[in-house]
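Section 4.2 – Deliverable D4.2 (structural model, holo form)

The reporting period included a commitment to supply a predicted holo structure for the target in complex with glycine. Inputs used:
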Amino acid sequence: MRVMIVGGGGREHALAWKVTQSPLVDEVFCVPGNAGTAAIARNIPADAADIPGIVSLAQEHRIDLTIVGPEAPLAKGLSNALQSEGLAVFGPTKDAARIESSKVFAKNLMAEYAIPTASYWVFDDFRNAISFVDEKGLPVVIKADGLAAGKGAFVCRTDDDVDEALRKTLVEERLGDAGKRILVEECLVGQEASVVVITDGETVLPLPSSEDHKQLLDGDRGPNTGGMGAFSPTEAIDDALQERVVREIMLPAIRGLKEQGIDYRGALYAGLMIVDGDPYVLEFNCRFGDPETQATLPRVKGDLVPVLLAAADGSLKGMKIDLEDNHCVCVTLASKGYPGRYERGLEIQGLSECEHLDNVIVFHAGTKTTKGSVITAGGRVLGVTAIGATKKDALQRVYDAVDRIDFQGKYFRRDIGMRSSY
Ligand code: AMP
Ligand code: GLY
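Output (structure tokens):
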């Protein structure tokens, strides 16, 4: 069969890496992909957000399954467009993707189906919001309702933080339409972790638990980024808690959507805060996590393609996802200046040396190939990933590999998987 993967980051390279290992798969296309996917699949230089363009590509290349990586095309209705042409797609429809594309929608769903989450209040007016926060007291979390590429949540500890967050969103509209409506949330204190499930709208199969490191600097300081690294499993979620997350969060969300006439098919990601042993939802995403996918797919035993196909066509019942009993750590190598301005086009050295290392996989994110060399083409450049029998073992391997790769201005965190809470 022929598979198309939409997107061009580290998550999509990890998906391509897993899918190309399937005996069912003859050919994999990545749109647009990166230098890493080009080595194992066929890249097509098209825009992942061009919905009619992607549908034409799926028809032209007789694609049997399209897997959508990022949220933007899902929120724009790529799955609907593919389905209406009779094409199989892994990824929710536009209505179902609202669980990520509207935080107000997600919060209302959680309230309706008693899914544990922080208390919340919705505002579209600066004065009302500020006087509410004055009365409520600090800290609070202010969030833009719409998609903001990870830049829409503000943890506010001072009046100045509140003022800045509300001005940015409601007054200056720096997040555009996404910030015209905001949520004020109660601030939860605990340990963050992620659980992703694959679902066909009925059955829910969890992938291994994981934890990411969103902040730029060691010690979880500095600005938020798209993700500086991830590891799996996380100590924050044992088997019993994972089962609770499925029972108390994932199944009620999927069933609640179904009650509203929405059939959710694809990956559902819950960003969680574990407070005194109890899981609360911070956010839902309508897709696989990045970089969590790089740290979880290498732990999935065997072929994932039958599961992805079954999720797409509604026949997941009776299937399972088996896991390796190991640990995986992914360290992001970023460009100097990221998440602000950074240079592109810098040559990357040491990649071929890493190909020969045992239990190491270098997932590409912002890379491309020119004249035979691989160069940087984004803020997050590579996700260097290693597997080990223990986390310590995986950490040793991953940082050994990180040291062998170089490009001008290479930046990475030295403490992935080493939070002091463990
Ligand atoms: P989100 O985009 O909703 O995942 O929020 C981004 C980050 O803000 C999360 O990873 C948390 O670190 C933090 N955060 C979001 N909501 C809350 C909350 N209610 N309480 C505490 N921290 C939060
Ligand atoms: N790693 C967080 C996300 O994928 O949204």
